[in-house]
Amino acid sequence: MAYYHSSGSSAASGFEYTQVGHSYANGQSDSQLNDPPFQPFQESQFDIFEWYPQFQSCLRYFLDHAQYNGPIQAVAAFVNIQLPFQKTYNPVLSSKHTGPNSPAGPGPGPSTPSTTRATGKMPLGAQVPLGAQMPLGAQLPTSTHTALTPYIRRLVATGFDYPAVLHGFFGDDWVGGIGPMHEAERRNYMFAAKSETWLKVKSHYDMDGEQHVPFLRPLSNVTEKEIQSAEAQWSEWLAMQDWMVGPRAPEQEPKIKQEDN
Fold it and tell me: Which of these, 153, 221, 228, lies nearest to 192 by C-alpha position?
């Protein structure tokens, strides 16, 4: 797997991804463009019980593999977001439970991703809270869960939410697992840009712990279908602001006035 990023006007021209056995197409057919707008998590055919195992697969891949991958670490550093194992408090080293009662790992020596996941020890660069005294050989408590939404949001806002990058972060099941979340966050980004100034949008996408978003980029690879879907939901939100819901909801299709003969 290889990532390349170079300076340019857009991430599309400077960011490439290659992996043997996988290919992605950014284009859409005419039939897809003519389909009704897709609304993530709101479609009647969306099955949450079918989605959840795929989401869990994405979470496991991200925690057990992607966060220890060099290219993923490079992207995370470039967009200024900490990976789970890099967090100062409650780092997440693996999707499997590890902690003080875990079996002892290998003897002293450089820590590797595999030994880190096996022993639950803190990776290089982890910090002990100021003033805390840890007994020799003791381990800091770790968690086994992390939210994926902050990473999706950061990739969307910085223009790195390409299929290849999402595949690198979340694995083979990313389309079914985090695909609906990705669609929703792209729409949220469009709504944020429509609602507020650049400065307020940027502050909204900043995160705690000095994880400020370094830059914002317009959405990439936007299709007419995606714009139509966003327009439909934006109209619904405007109706909500005016309490035009329930029995007062606007008609979906305009009525045709008939002239009296």
Answer: 153
Report yes or no on 258 lying in a domain. Answer: no
Residue with tokens 């003519």: 34
Percentage of the chain modeled with pLDDT above 70: 61
Listed in sequence order, the residues at least 6 apart from 63 whose beta carbon sits closer than 8 Å to its beta carbon are: 84, 92, 93, 94, 95, 144, 146
* pLDDT(260) > 70: no
245: which residues sit within 8 A by CB, 6+ positions away? 239
Domain containing 168 equals 47-97+142-219
**Res. 258 pLDDT band, cuts 50 70 90:** low
Measure Cα distances from 224 to 78, 81, 180 in Å: 30, 31, 18
32 pLDDT above the threshold of 50: no
**What is the tally of structural domains in the chain?**
1
Residue 37 lies in a domain: no
Contact between 180 and 40 (Cβ < 8 Å): yes
Token representation of residue 195: 């609602």
Identify the three-state secondary structure at position 143: strand
